[in-house]
Specification:
With 52 residues, this protein is mostly helical. The protein is built from two helices and no strands. It is elongated and about 45 Å long.
Length: 52
C-alpha cells in the first residue's frame, strides 16, 4: 500500500510540475465522471427496474 501511494504521489507531483494544475484538475474530473458513469451502468444492469 505505501509503495503504491508513494508512486502515485510521485506521478501526481510530476504531472503538476510538467502541466498546469487546471489541466490536472480537468483530467481528475474526467476520471471521476467516467468512474461514476461506470458505477451507474453496473447498478442499472444489476437492477433491471428500480422502484420509483
Amino acid at each position: 500500500m505505501t509503495g503504491g501511494a508513494k508512486s502515485v504521489l510521485s506521478t501526481v507531483r510530476a504531472r503538476v510540475a510538467t502541466s498546469s494544475i487546471l489541466d490536472w484538475l480537468r483530467a481528475l474530473v474526467r476520471r471521476v465522471v467516467a468512474f461514476v458513469k461506470e458505477l451507474f451502468q453496473e447498478d442499472q444492469s444489476e437492477v433491471p427496474a428500480p422502484p420509483a
